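User: Fold this, then the next.

Assistant: Folding the first:
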Amino acid sequence: MKYEVNWKELWRSLTKYMSLTIIFSVSAIMLVRYVSSGFNFGETFKHLTPLGTVGLILGCWLLSAFFALIISVWFKLAYVTIKDGVIAGRNYWGRKKSFPLSQLKSIDSFSDNGINAVVANGGKFGKVFVYYQTEKIEEIVKILEAHLPERMEA
């Protein structure tokens, strides 16, 4: 069965994460500049108008939305398939990996820069990342859990 990634949901969440991070960083830099100028508002923000401030915030958001779109479309290719006892998907670097479910060593979680995933570790066969935005992720996790070594021995 093929499990697609809901790239639109990922796009929304990444846009939010990236824009908040960028806007917070720019605001922090402006605050540091304001403090280092001896709290001189006119000197610190002499090149920034109210319209320029709105443009800066909107520009940060649009830049975030654009890069989030590129990343999300790439993640659309990160669908997972489980067929005939073999799981196939993408690893951390986006390379295609597959291994028999009988070779599953562990299931781990992954979270970095707004990207969250469940990692199916196939040992020497590599890892397959199942992103939280993948449809029916609960079903995939149940399938993976059923093939864990400690479950097989019990």
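Now the next one, as you asked:
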Amino acid sequence: MPSLKLATLILAIAATLAVVAPAAAQSLSPLEKTGVTPSDRKAFKLTVGNPYQSRMTFVMVPLAPDYQTPIEGVTVRPAELTMAPQFSRQVIVTFDIDPKKKERTIALCVMPKALDGPILPRVCGRYTGRMAGNGG
């Protein structure tokens, strides 16, 4: 039966494309970075991108390295971005480092502000600041 073979071929191609085609999700770059600072504050310049086909607003959410626990002593400027499709912008994340510990790692997640559905995509990165003189 030629039609059965054709249907099988079409299903195989569709399955391959579904696996190969990347899902669109906001981007955060770099996803991991470590840096040394001469003070008790560290800042990183990160790039957030909008790969969606429409204008989107994203929020930056600082978290503990477990990617779940909200934390204090972190500032993200801007904390919310509205971007055109296929556009990217830079944000600055700044955080305090306890001088007694001389190092701090934080997570930063980028999430759509308003998106319907039970699963909201988020992209997270980890950033470590080390005070100078700590082997950094």
